[in-house]
Design goal:
The protein has 820 residues and is of the alpha+beta class. It is 67% helix and 7% strand.
């Protein structure tokens, strides 16, 4: 031990040894932690007993006669958790059972009767059978618990649905009947006494809060709450306007962010101000249980009411039309400006009365009367709001027709009117619970739609700002990934669509929760729709989403690799630009094929299924897609054999020009007039193609010059050679040459040949040389070939008619002067 400490001390000054010791200690701690975790992990029988105990508690709780809907939903969630844990345990035990089964199969069956067997082999088989039976029993127990938990969850769902149906199907006296009014009047003294007793309890609790010694805290919280709901709220709204107008990028995001900021500011400042007032009153927990329950309900309702008022006020924006998101007129916005606050007050009031009736135990008649008033107020406000909203689609005074209303808006408005009419009919016929429920659902659905609409618009504006062509991420994405700006727009639209779908499903869940259907029911329904089987191919949403994600990630990876190859690696090789372009294109095709194959495998389509689909499409390919397949294969041959490549000058039928791009199906050829000819790839395989730059990229300039017979051929040759040697584009190798090609009765013909760097330069160089040769010959006073003299003779006394070059013909500027 002493030696060990000595070694540690001698190495304490070495940083490398210090790091090794730290890593060694960390490894020991991790190993010991894993050992402790394994030691503390419950065994399989303990896990099964725990799952059984949890399930028994759920089944016991669901038999309580006073069970509420909230408890039912909580028990359903717990049942789902038990079923999930049991399935996980069964899956983990399945490997042990398979291993035990393999061990038994390896030992083989026991021998027939009368056959002796080695005692060691018999004992081994017996132990293996015992192990398999134990694990198999545990798997069956876990599967049984999972099945029982799922059945319990279904029973709870049925119970929740039955209680909801019983609630809305209850019938009482109609408001048109006398008992509807006489029963609340008869029960009024008792209800008034209960209310008076509760009011006395509240006064006592408030007085106790004032006298217990928390006056300072109460006054401070009350002042802070009032300040938060007034001055702080106005200041934050001002700052939100300033930030969105000056700090955010231009675009629609400013408007949607401003509306969200105002809605959240109204909700938080009002709700937190009420929460501060509650904390001041109940600083020392002086409230009784009933008073505290009512006070907490008021705080929650104020939060919700402030959200309704802030959301509606910010969406309508009656005083600031430029902030308004919905497509409604200014007059309609002015007509609707009071409804958010009225609906907010109605929601807070009636749900407070509902909680108050439950707390003080009012009579059934008073509860029915409250529900009736709630149905009347909610439906009246909703109907008036819909009537004023309908003015948006009336013709203007000048006769201008309104903009067409979206189909989903028309459907929702029609559904709202149906619900309002159904609520009125149910109210008049005595189904008060149903009338109150329908009225509440109209208001709740409108709130959910408004919140979802704002969230969707915010998401659209956010992705449009971040992923637009002119957005802040466009330049970075192009620099890093070489992404085209249009791809950013497409990515923004796709991401926005995915998030909008999630918001839509969340809104559907929120709306359906009011109809007795909770999140658990929707998840259960989703689990039943998790697979779609077409013939022998089973498609699952999770696999489809994974396949789509892998497809786009694979395309991104292929693009990154292509950019790296074309911009980083291939330029450092000895390959010509055409070969580099061909390799990059071929790599892209191969990468896309691999990405598609991986995506199909992730979707669950095996190679056998893909082959089956290909076989089924073979007939269509043979008849309708033959040309496309032929051109595709020809494009691959062009990229592999490279008879032509990008940058070559080719002549194919009437097309002559430079190859700019070789695509999957066709090749682009740019001709002299800068237009582009699209030629199918099969034409390069099946037709003769003249490649001007395949073997030798040089271009040959050929000039044929006829000269008079009396010209000095040596002088003409020297002048032509000097002109070619003087031109900068004429190459020294092969050397320029001038030959005497032909001599006839009229002239002798000189042929000049020289070479330039590219066939594309032949036309321009030839023109320059002709201009230079003519100037040199005229400067040396060497006459050019003139047309032959033509003399017409007649048999009479008429004189000779001079031809174009006769003595009487007009003289050209190049003709020599006879006088000289």
């Amino acid at each position: 031990m002493h030696r060990a400490f000595d070694l540690a001390d001698t190495g304490s000054d070495d940083p490398f040894m210090r790091i090794l010791r730290i890593l060694f200690i960390a490894f020991l701690l991790a190993a010991s932690g894993g050992a402790f975790a394994q030691a503390d992990a419950p065994s399989t029988p303990q896990q099964i007993d725990d799952l059984r105990g949890r399930l028994d508690q759920i089944e016991k709780a669901m038999k309580d006669d006073k069970i509420t809907n909230t408890i039912i939903d909580d028990l359903r969630g717990k049942s789902g958790d038990v079923a999930g844990d049991a399935q996980k345990l069964s899956a983990s035990l399945q490997q042990n059972r398979d291993a035990a089964k393999a061990r038994l199969d390896q030992l083989g069956p026991p021998p027939a009767a009368g056959t002796k067997e080695a005692p060691e082999l018999a004992a081994t088989r017996k132990d293996a059978q015992k192990t398999f039976d134990a694990v198999d029993a545990q798997v069956k127990q876990a599967d049984g618990i999972a099945l029982e938990a799922q059945q319990t969850a279904n029973q709870l769902s049925d119970l929740r649905r039955i209680r909801f149906q019983e609630l809305i199907s209850q019938r009482t006296n109609s408001p048109l009947s006398r008992p509807f009014w006489s029963e609340p009047a008869a029960a009024f003294p008792r209800d008034a006494a209960n209310l008076s007793d509760f009011a006395g309890t509240v006064r006592t609790d408030v007085a106790a809060s004032w006298n217990v010694g928390n006056r300072t805290a109460l006054i401070t919280c009350a002042l802070l709450g009032l300040l938060l709901m007034t001055g702080v709220r106005f200041y934050i709204e001002h700052r939100v306007r300033h930030l969105t107008a000056n700090r955010m990028p231009p675009g629609r995001l400013r408007r949607s962010a401003l509306i969200l900021g105002i809605a959240l500011t109204s909700t938080l400042t009002t709700g937190l101000g009420t929460q501060l007032l509650y904390l001041g009153l109940n600083w020392n927990d002086t409230f009784s249980q009933e008073t505290d329950e009512i006070a907490r309900t008021i705080v929650q309702l104020v939060f919700f009411g402030a959200f309704i008022a802030g959301l509606g006020r910010s969406l309508i924006s009656a005083k600031r039309p430029s902030w308004r998101l919905p497509a409604i007129s200014d007059q309609t916005a002015i007509d609707l400006r009071r409804f958010p606050m009225l609906i907010s007050l109605a929601v807070v009031l009636f749900y407070f009365l509902k909680q108050l009736n439950h707390t003080i135990g009012t009579s059934l008649a008073a509860t029915v009367l409250t529900s009736s008033l709630q149905a009347i107020v909610f439906t009246t406000l909703s109907a008036l709001a819909l009537l004023r909203l309908g003015r948006t689609h009336h013709h203007d005074e000048d006769g201008t027709p309104p903009a067409p209303r979206p189909i989903w808006a028309s459907v929702l408005i029609a559904a709202a009117w149906i619900a309002i009419v159904a609520s009125w009919i149910a109210l008049l016929t005595g189904f008060i619970s149903f009338a109150s429920f329908m009225a509440g659902q109209v208001v709740w659905t409108a709130i959910v739609i408004a919140a979802t609409y704002l969230a969707m618009r915010l998401v659209d504006d956010l992705f449009e700002t971040l992923l637009s062509e002119k957005g802040p991420m466009s330049a970075r994405a192009q620099a890093i990934f070489g992404t085209h700006p249009k791809l950013l727009d497409q990515a923004g639209v796709l991401l926005s669509g995915v998030v909008r779908l999630g918001l839509f499903l969340f809104g559907i869940t929120a709306v359906m929760s009011g109809f007795g259907t909770g999140t658990t029911d929707l998840l259960t329904l989703g689990s039943k729709l998790q697979s779609l089987k077409i013939y022998d191919v089973e498609l699952k949403p999770s696999q489809i989403l994974t396949s789509i994600a892998l497809f786009f990630l694979g395309l991104l990876a292929v693009r990154v690799i292509k950019n790296w190859m074309s911009e980083q690696y291939l330029p450092r090789t000895n390959l010509d630009p055409g070969m580099r372009s061909s390799l990059t294109t071929l790599l892209g095709y191969v990468g896309i094929v691999i990405v598609v194959a991986i995506a199909l495998l992730a979707m669950g389509l095996s190679v056998q299924n893909v082959t089956w689909v290909a076989s089924a499409l073979s007939v269509g390919i043979g008849f309708g897609l033959q040309a496309i397949v032929q051109n595709f294969i020809s494009g691959l041959i062009l990229l592999a054999e490279r008879p032509v490549k990008v940058g070559d000058w080719v002549v194919l039928d009437d097309a002559e020009g430079d190859i700019r791009r070789i695509n999957v199906r066709a090749t682009e050829i740019q001709v002299a007039d800068r237009s582009t000819i699209i030629v199918p790839n099969s034409s390069f395989i099946t037709k003769p193609v003249r490649n001007m730059t395949m073997a030798n990229p040089q271009g040959r300039v050929l000039i044929k010059l006829p000269m008079p017979l009396d010209s000095d051929p040596v002088d003409v040759r020297e002048h032509m050679l000097e002109a070619m040697h003087a031109h900068a584009s004429v190459q020294e190798t092969p050397a320029a040459s001038v030959t005497l090609d032909n001599i006839d009765r009229a002239a002798m013909t000189f042929v000049a040949v020289c070479y330039v760097g590219s066939p594309r330069d032949v036309g321009g160089v030839k023109s320059d040389l002709l201009f230079d040769i003519i100037a040199r010959l005229r400067g040396a006073e060497i006459p050019l070939l003139r047309p032959q003299d033509l003399v017409l003779r007649s048999g009479g006394n008429m004189g000779d008619l001079p031809g174009p070059t006769a003595a009487g013909a007009p003289k050209a500027s190049t003709d020599p002067d006879p006088a000289s």
